[in-house]
Design a protein that fits this description.
By secondary structure, this protein is an alpha/beta fold. Helices cover about 40% and strands about 15% of the residues.
Length: about 325
């Protein structure tokens, strides 16, 4: 006998008229596991063209990645929970990839202004209502995403926008994901486990359903997956996902992801460069490998086999 799907906890700021939409969106992106594979495509702004053309420590970036449509091809053919990018790209390409669940990123900034010049300030580009309007075009809009920078001198205005956006998203039955990165002149160590835990807690108070944080580093030789448990606990009912970071070895990446989920207790990942910098077929296999661990609970060895094309994973 097949077990009943798990209960979805619906926040109290989701009105009864939108509760069904919220639950549908939550189940769609989590595959009834409570975990999320978020394919991140917002770096077209955050890192300009650095991540899409040229080379990395791992070698040349695939020529496919020069074209923004590469992101949409991966999202359509891969196994993901949702694809997060700015409204302009969703509006431009979304109709041709209408099967993709989209998360609309409401704010972004480039990396051109260093912290030594000014603290990070990511102002809103779009509103929740504008993201919702894309549903009229037949697109599956499952949520909104936004970034806050705890420690920035502008953190107050960012929190105000984020709290309102999370509330407005819930009124429409949408999920809200907050990228929470400690950054600014007042932040001496962005990867401190205790600080990252605090930033996860901030996202919970703002009303996020998921919070994306960077994986910490320890300075005393202690276990990073064990230290990361503090952030998972601090997030509470807001589920914590981790940033994929810069391109790295496939096996090492998947091992870290497995540790984050099955040692730390994290609820998935938000991965961009480790997927889209690869040629299309390879990138699609990478989404399946990530999902095999996140949604399927597969071992690292089995997930590597998926990434190498020796096995397949589907939902």
């Amino acid at each position: 006998m097949q077990s009943a799907p798990p209960t979805v906890q619906i926040p109290a700021d989701v009105p009864s008229a939108s509760a069904g939409v919220y639950e549908q969106n939550y189940r769609l992106v989590t595959k009834d596991t409570g975990r999320l594979v978020l394919f991140a495509g917002d770096q077209k702004v955050e890192h300009l063209n650095d991540d899409f053309f040229g080379s990395t420590k791992q070698g040349p970036i695939a020529a496919d990645d020069a074209d923004p449509e590469h992101l949409f091809r991966i999202a359509e053919r891969g196994v993901i929970g949702c694809f997060a990018t700015q409204l302009g790209l969703v509006a431009r390409y979304g109709r041709d990839y209408a099967s993709v669940p989209y998360m609309v990123k409401l704010n972004s900034k480039t990396h051109l202004i260093p912290v030594s010049q000014d603290d990070p300030r990511s102002r809103p580009w779009n509103t929740v209502a504008q993201a919702v309007s894309l549903r009229e075009a037949g697109l599956t809009i499952v949520g909104i995403g936004l970034t806050v920078y705890p420690g920035s001198r502008y953190e107050g205005e960012q929190y105000e926008f984020a709290a309102q956006a999370c509330y407005d998203a819930h009124r429409e039955g949408l999920l809200a994901v907050i990228w929470s990165y400690p950054r600014g002149e007042a932040v001496p160590n962005e990867r401190d486990p205790h600080l990252i835990a605090g930033c996860a807690g901030v996202a919970a108070t703002l009303g996020a359903d998921f919070v994306k944080v960077n994986y910490p580093k320890t300075s005393d030789g202690s276990s990073v997956p064990e230290a990361f448990r503090e952030a998972v606990a601090a997030a509470g009912r807001t589920r914590l996902i981790t940033a994929g970071g810069e391109g790295t070895d496939v096996t090492a990446f998947l091992q870290t992801l497995h540790d984050q989920i099955f040692i730390s207790g994290a609820s998935g990942s938000a991965t961009g460069r480790n997927i889209h910098q690869k040629p299309l077929d390879e990138a699609v296999r990478m989404t399946k490998a990530i999902s095999a661990i996140t949604y399927g609970g597969w071992s690292v060895a089995d997930a590597v086999a998926v990434a190498n094309g020796e096995r397949d994973f589907s939902i």
